[in-house]
Amino acid sequence: MTEKPEETKENISKTEDISKNVYDATAMNEYERPIAVYVRVSTEKQELDNQLVLIESWLKARGLQADYRFIEQPMSGSEDERPQFLALWEKIDKGEIKTLVVAELSRLSRRMPTLVNFLYKCVEKDVTVVSLREEWLANALKNKMFRPIVIAMLSTLYELERQMISERTKAGLERAKREGKHVGRPQKLSAKEQKKIMELYSMGVPISRIASQLGVSRSTVKRYIIMSQKRGKQ
User: Fold this and answer.
1) What is the 3 state secondary structure string of the chain?
2) What are the pLDDT digits (tens) for 37-66?
């Protein structure tokens, strides 16, 4: 009769180590290197720390480590002109990144067109995008067959969103017109000041002097004169 070997702490420890190594190898094969991390904050440092903790914990649990870290600090300017985001996009375009990890997709861009174009580039360059918040999306993007379908769905949602915003804007403008509200750029001058422009202009006062008196540009004075003349012809 064969005796069952005693499960000593040493045996259990070896078994756990083997299991861990198998798991780590699987994770490393699943997420190719180089691995990049992108973190973006609005204002608070705490938000940056929270994102980094989440991402680093995710990497550590899978026996992975980041090869590149792109940390976007708060800045003014265009959404599409963020230096770290542009540097990330460039490395992906050059094929220097195979896996990208973010806390959530909105960190990449709040503009749907930019996000869709970026994800299309990732699909084109065979980059796996992992979003810790949108786990379902991360799993879909890992599948090379489903990637184009997911991006196409996002693109369709963007187009629907754009059309809905356009329709709401048109409806709002029509409602404002019906209510007699001013539509378009805000008036720089009051009705009294506009009347003053036409009085001075009819007296032969030069446009440059009118502009100086009212503290506006010559182009503004010209615009109000043209608008007044058009109204007079109607």
Assistant:
1) CCCCCCCCHHHHHHHHHHHHHHHHHHHHHHCCCCEEEEEECCCCHHHHHHHHHHHHHHHHHCCCCCCEEEEECCCCCCHHHCHHHHHHHHHHHCCCCCEEEECCHHHCCCCHHHHHHHHHHHHHCCCEEEECCCHHHHHHHHCCCCHHHHHHHHHHHHHHHHHHHHHHHHHHHHHHHHCCCCCCCCCCCCHHHHHHHHHHHHCCCCHHHHHHHHCCCHHHHHHHHHHHHHHHHC
2) 999 876 655 667 788 889 999 999 999 999
